[in-house]
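Morning. Coffee machine broken again, so started the prediction first thing and wrote up yesterday's gels while waiting. Chain of 213 residues, entered below exactly as on the submission form.
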Amino acid sequence: MSLHRPASALRALTVAALAAGAVLTAPAADAAPKEAAPALSATPAFLSASQLPPHPTSSWTAGPVTDGFPDELGLCVSTEGVPGHDYRHRRFWTDLDTGAVQLTVVAGTSAQAKALAQHYDDLIRTCADRIEESSPDVETEGRDYGTLPVEEGARVRGLHTETSWGATDIALLSVGRDGRTVTVVKWGQMGDFRDAPVAAFKKTTRTAVNKLY
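Came back before lunch.
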């Protein structure tokens, strides 16, 4: 990640991320009237540092909530092929090699948010194959850790990358939705699947979705 992150496969490959798979398009001019956008009581809330998977030797630090799309998601998730949205994100880091980021997006309708969440999950699901296609010197493996029964649902996945020169990184990513708001959470560090705190990250994902409103 851009903050306190090693020069590793995940970070080095961010610039090589390929275009998104499924493309979300705007409705045709003669389509049925749009669903009225429900009023939201407040802007979506973000995770706090204490709600990240505990690090065994270092505490988490949370950065400010910032407008824009975070570079840390660019390896697997991007804005390409998606109608414009107002993106907000928050970065987290430890004193060592572990970092995280949370993105929130408020769509115009619940239907659009559902499609956007599916699109992001599809990008994460196919990320390993796209990395290998673009970078023959990198071996990748993706894992599906299943869905979570929180609000309109969430799914957790894992991604391991290993380069021919020995750099190895593990990431956990999740996509969740509450009404017309989508959140994406990513945790990452050097290591492999044995180093992934899957149970703790699932708890973090549930908290992230529940905390939106």
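Confidence is low (pLDDT under 50) at residues 1-38. Going to sketch it on the whiteboard this afternoon.
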